[in-house]
Every structure is written in C-alpha cells, then in structure tokens.
Amino acid sequence: MTMDLDDELKQVFRPQDVHMGRLEADPEKCTGCGLCIQNCLFRSWEMDENEVPYMKEGAACFGCYNCMVACPVDAISIVEPYHVDSGLFRTLPNPMPAVPPLPPFDADGNPDKWNEVERVVFTRRSVRNFSDKPVPEPLLRRIVEAGRHAPSGGNSQPWKFIIISNKALLDELNEASAKILRATYEMYADDEKVKMLAAGYKANPTPGSWDPRIILGGIGTCVYNGINPVLLGAPVTILIAADRRAIGGPQMQVGICGQNMILVANSLGLKATWVGFVGACNGVPSIMAKLGLEDPFYITSSVVVGYPKFKQEGTVAREYRPITWFREGQDDPDIEEEPRVVTLTGAEAR
Is 209 a domain residue? Predict the structure, then answer.
C-alpha cells in the first residue's frame, strides 16, 4: 500500500491501534431471545450453534452498551471498552474504565436515592428500534415546545424545526443521505481517492468527522452495508436547522435544545435518538429547497421519535475520565483518577 499522506493525515485517515469494544454473553444466563442483536446499531452480534449470542470477529463496537439494557436476564458483560492506543484518536487515559452511575448521597454524606430528574437522565438511552405505531401530533407539539424553550446564547434561539412524518419524504432523506455517505466511505477506503478527502481536511480540519467510531462504525458498517436506514425507520423525524450566525456558534445550543426534546419525548412514553447523518442532505439543493432551508440555516442534526419496539432503556456504564478538584483551603489540585464514594462524614474515600 502506498500513500502520499503525511504523518498527521495518516493519523486521521488511517488510524492505528484501534480496539473496538468487546462484550460477551453468559451462556448460563442467556435465554437466546436475540434482543441484544436487535439493539446493536452495527449488528455486531450473532447466534452460535447453541443459540447464545457472540460478537463477530472484527465487529464494530463503540461501547454504547445498549445490548446490555435490552437483555432481560442481565447476561451481557463488558470484556474490553472501546479504546485507541496511539495517534490523534488515542483515548486518554487508555483505556478508560467503564463505570456505572455512582451511588447517590445527600448533602451531609448520607446514602440517598436518585431523584426523578437523575433517574430520567441515567436511564435514558438512544433508542433505535421503533414500532409502526404513529406518533400523535399533540405529543409532537409538546416535544417541540421543549426544544423551543431551551436556553441559548443571548437568547438568540438559533434553530428551526421541521417535523416529518411523510413516509415518501423520509425515504427521500434516507436515500439521499445514504448515497452521499456511501460515496464518502468509498473514497475513504481507497488509497488514492482518500487523498481528495485529505485535501479537504487540510483546508478545514474536522477530526471528529473521521473518528473511527463514525467512519468505520457508523458509516462503514451501518450505512454502507445497509444495516439500517439513516433515519432508523422511525415514524417521525424532527430536523433541527441551525443558524450559522448564532452567538457562540450553534452546535452546543442545538445540543441543549435537542436534549430537551428527547427527555420530554421519554416522559410521554415515546423514545428518541439523535441522527446527525441526515446533515448530508445539506449538499442536495433539491431537498434543501423542498425543506425551505437556505443560508444562514442548515441541517445540523435531527431527533427521530417513535414508540419503542421493545425495552431499550436502563443504566449502563460510561467511561470515567479523571476529574480535577480545586477545593477551598488546598493549594494543589486533587486529581481523581478513579471513582470515589462519599462516606457518611462527607469525606472522600476510595
């Protein structure tokens, strides 16, 4: 293989030492229901001859652990979290431990229970398997109202909402997005064509767009292989169009707006997830015209909404990155490398 990419670009477009996540199912507990397979975005699991699921060799897994919450008998455990040993995408620390929510304590350091807001936050998952049941319009209006009332820099409210339940238009968005993403992946995978992507990257560096979890997993495994439509077969998609002129930039503000909508959707018995890939349609003038979008507005992301096909919510472990504390009366920082539990006295102990 010959490539003319310099070391910096090779780290972006040919990352090394990437370790996808690995999980396993306990054959003593497993009932063979297959929900872990259905709830894996990349379909990284398959059944063995004994009807026990296992992760396929070389399968993509970025550690969402949604397979775990779908399992009704708690048969799945984490063997190794997703991590990258070197280069631009190196995880720090490496690998980061997967840690479930820490037990709650009250202000005096006494054991407590999660309040309702905490419970909703910790059990919310990205749901990607929906029933065919239509979503009533009154509920969609409540969801959008939650987004409309999100905080924004300078109260600029840099968003527009486009609610789509029209199946023909959803199909059009799916097909247009997938076509562009497949073409992008084909260029990425080709040692000559990737140089064109590298040239564009040098002009406008966006490393997150080429993270192995996105390009190898989301695009290369899921979209390119046609595992799921881009909009995941949800009955409703809410496009969030952002204003480029937003104070401080629109991305974080759209994130707050969308999170409001997702949490309210969950409260109404619906489920939802983000889908950013539909932003590929920004490059399709006919679709943008149909949507009524023109500069300075562009599709920044979307929230797909529907009734869940099966249980897909629950608590999971998340990467624990070191936390640094600067406490009153202490000159030096306290770097919390591992999770700590608060004692009854309010002091900290490992």
Answer: yes
